[in-house]
Design brief:
The protein contains 15 helices and five strands. It has about 350 residues and is α/β, with parallel strands linked by helices.
Length: about 350
């Protein structure tokens, strides 16, 4: 049996780690009959184990893109593996959910196998806000993110659309319960043993920011919008071992979000295995820097900040830009540390991104 295997996220559930695991084990997977093709835009992605968007980003955009990819590659013995967080919102809101199964069958696959990870709402909303600050130029308050958070609604919509389709199977796990055992979850989905897979070279991938880094990033985002990601990308890439600090709003804000989502969470939990169900744990508020914590960055963090900003300033001086229309943020191209993660094709000088 050959399957079309889709790892669809969702976001902030260990996706970067799983994608690093897949791409660094490409040859291992091939020996077991699986094909994990490199991204179409970067054939040598295996050489870089940092954060990325997986190999399914293009295929996730439209059914035509998926069909083109399926027809372009030979059908492997056990399955074709594609991974992208973009699959989740696209599939959850698809007007014709059964089209995915039809495309797979037409391409010669026996069935579609989907791996979906979910996460407890409070920690997930907090993590999404951190990612928004890190990589989208975000400046909106944390509380606003909790007011807008609706990911479980999309999970329910996805399950309603795909669970029960004859040629589609869904493997679901809760990241909040299994974040220390992601390799086991991936291996189980593939029908392999965890020891069959080599651990990623990078011990920690796509870490969050410390409180001091967060405040610095927010200030930079206010000035240059999402181009400010050059700083967070640099810090997380060069110093992956630094311990991040989660940010949580007041408990009343957390509780209000959970109360709003309660009907959806109840419906979902009635369909999930006990170990995978959502939990409504409240976290101690943690936003501003505590008084007993220094506002200063470490020497290593400061070196990264100086390095990345110094590099960009040198580029500006060398460019000899004399047009009034050319501004600082137009030259911050995000290519210093992790070029693969730059916003491809984006030249908009955006400021202060909003969710």
């Amino acid at each position: 049996m050959s399957r079309l295997l889709l790892h669809i996220g969702h976001s902030k559930t260990g996706t970067s780690f799983l994608q690093a695991l897949l791409r660094e084990n490409r040859s291992v997977l091939a020996r077991h009959g699986y094909d994990y093709p490199p991204p179409s835009w970067q054939e040598n992605e295996e050489d870089n184990a940092e954060i990325g968007q997986g190999n399914g980003l293009v295929a996730a955009q439209t059914p035509k893109a998926m069909q083109a990819l399926l027809l372009d590659r030979p059908r492997p013995d056990r399955g074709l593996i594609l991974s992208s967080e973009e699959f989740f919102p696209q599939l959850a809101t698809a007007s014709d959910p059964e089209r995915l199964g039809r495309l797979a069958i037409e391409a010669g696959y026996d069935k579609v196998s989907i791996l979906l990870a979910i996460r407890d709402p409070v920690s997930h909303a907090a993590s999404l806000w951190m990612q928004y600050v890190k990589r989208a130029g975000g400046t909106a308050p944390l509380e606003r993110f909790f007011e807008l958070y609706t990911v479980p609604d999309l999970v329910l919509r996805f399950l309603d659309a795909y669970d029960g389709q004859l040629n589609v199977s869904i493997k679901l796990f809760n990241y909040s319960r299994h974040k220390a055992h992601l390799t086991d979850r991936l291996a189980d989905w593939l029908g392999l043993e965890a020891q069959d897979l080599n651990a990623p070279r990078a011990p920690r991938i796509n870490r969050g920011l410390t409180r001091a880094e967060t405040e610095l990033q927010l200030a930079l985002n206010t000035e240059i919008g999402r181009r400010g990601r050059i700083l967070s990308d640099a810090l997380c890439s060069a110093l992956p071992e630094v311990t991040a600090h989660a940010a949580y709003p007041a408990k009343c804000v957390q509780a209000a979000m959970l109360d709003r989502l309660s009907p959806t969470l109840g419906r979902l939990n009635s369909r999930l295995e006990p170990d995978e169900r959502y939990q409504d744990t409240l976290h101690e508020p943690m936003t501003l820097l505590p008084q007993n914590e220094t506002n200063f960055l470490s020497q290593h963090q400061l070196r990264v900040v100086v390095s990345v900003l110094g590099h960009e300033i040198r580029n500006l001086l060398k460019s000899k830009v004399d047009s009034a229309r050319e501004t600082l943020y137009e030259s911050l191209d995000g290519t210093v540390f992790t070029a693969e993660n730059s916003i491809k094709g984006s030249t908009e000088p955006e400021r202060g991104g909003q969710p």
